[in-house]
Specification:
- By secondary structure, this protein is of the alpha/beta class.
- It has helices at 43-50, 119-122, 126-137, 166-177, 191-196, 210-217, 232-241, 289-307, 322-334, and strands spanning 4-11, 15-23, 31-40, 63-71, 81-85, 102-106, 110-112, 157-161, 181-186, 201-204, 224-227, 249-252, 264-267, 278-280, 283-285, 316-319, 342-346.
- The strands form 4 sheets. Strands 3, 4, 5, 6, 7, 16 and 17 form a 7-stranded mixed sheet that branches. A 6-stranded parallel sheet has the order 10-9-8-11-12-13, with helices on both faces. A two-stranded antiparallel ribbon has the order 1-2.
- α1 packs across α9, α3 crosses α4 and α6 (210-217) runs parallel beside α7.
- It is globular, with a radius of gyration of 19 Å.
- Residues 11-344 form the Enoyl reductase (ER) domain.
- Keywords: Oxidoreductase.
């Protein structure tokens, strides 16, 4: 094995580039070294660059699939097929990331790829599974819904705003497996995608009246709203959709202006699920081991649903060019030219 590899890294000022002399990563506690076969792209990848959240030399990317190259864990051996989520653009440890030939991957947010799932399909799961677990199911951090392993016995409804996003389509399926009625919002062109993943009702996310329409449709009874998009408009939509009675909860994937003080508000960040301390800008995140332990259990549920054929990945748009192609894909994603699909690149 060559002592160096190809990788996409962050460079100042707010740029990313492909290098061919990146040192190989070193295994750490609760990690494995992975030979990457495929990577998928997420908005957080380009945002870390555009917003300058990384630092010089940081490896970028969060989603991956590949084979275990080195392991100190009895659960994993060389050659095992693995997929998961890593902390790309981590200013606290520049080795973390997925856009490279070899990576160091945390075991809290990883699964063994079932035989019925390809590397390309598995590469789409990392950020989505982690975020779904937090936003919908983790108690005292997200909405705290019942897990698919303990489905509800009394009818309840959850709104998923951004239901055709890569995270939203997974969220719909997990919520349905847990017994919930799911209302999704997305653009009309993606209604069929949301329905194909199990959404019971779909509303137009771009219609300013959608929040009020959902409130009327549910007869002012909606207690749970999960926002996969973020932004003032999303917060307003969910606030209008939720019941005006006590006991409503709202969770979002990023800081969102929310106009109601009577609703429990949760903002999740996928990176805490890995379990390591980190800093983002002026904010610090510490003591995340409990989140990581919770994620281990949730990723086991995800694995089992996949293996049983009960969980569909987001539609894959396989692109060519390897890591060189990834740079072009990040531009396309940032320009808003990707909808209802996940960009995937094989290395």
């Amino acid at each position: 094995m060559s002592p160096t590899m190809k990788a996409i890294i962050y460079t100042e000022p707010k740029q990313s580039r492909l290098v061919s002399d990146r040192p190989l990563p070193q295994i750490r506690e609760n990690t494995v070294v992975v030979k990457v076969v495929a990577v998928a792209l997420n908005p957080t990848d380009w945002k870390h660059v555009a917003m300058g959240m990384a630092k010089e030399g940081c490896l970028l990317g969060v989603d991956y699939a590949g084979t275990v190259e080195q392991s100190n864990s009895p659960e994993w051996k060389k050659g095992d097929r693995i997929a998961g989520f890593v902390h790309g653009g981590n200013a606290n440890n520049i080795e973390d990331g997925s856009f490279a030939e070899y990576i160091v991957a945390p075991l809290a947010t990883a699964l063994r790829i079932p035989e019925n799932v390809s590397f390309e399909e598995a590469s789409t799961l990392g950020c989505g599974v982690t975020t779904v677990g937090q936003g919908l199911f983790e108690k005292d951090y997200g909405l705290g819904l019942n897990l698919p392993t303990n489905p509800i016995t009394t009818p309840a409804t959850v709104l998923i705003n951004g239901g055709s996003s890569a995270t939203g389509t997974l969220g719909i399926q997990f919520a349905k497996k847990a017994g919930y009625t799911v209302i999704a919002t997305c653009s009309p062109k993606n209604f069929d995608l949301a329905r194909s993943r199990g959404a019971d009702e779909v509303f137009d996310s771009r219609d300013p009246a959608t929040g009020k329409k959902i409130n009327e449709f549910t007869q002012n009874s909606l207690r749970y709203a999960w926002d996969c998009l973020g932004g003032k408009e999303s917060g307003q939509l969910c606030a209008e959709a939720l019941t005006t009675n006590p006991g409503a909860s709202f969770a979002t994937i990023r800081s969102t202006e929310f106009p109601r003080q009577d609703v429990k508000y949760f903002m999740t960040m996928a990176y805490v699920g890995i379990g390591e301390d980190f800093d983002k800008g002026q904010s610090q995140s510490r003591d995340n081991q409990g989140h990581a332990q919770w994620q281990r259990g949730f990723w086991k549920i995800a694995h089992d649903l996949l293996a049983e054929g009960q969980l569909k990945v987001h539609p894959v748009r396989a692109e060519k060019g390897g890591l060189e192609g990834v740079l072009k894909g990040l531009d396309e994603l940032q320009e808003g030219n990707v909808s209802g699909q996940k960009l995937v690149y094989s290395l």
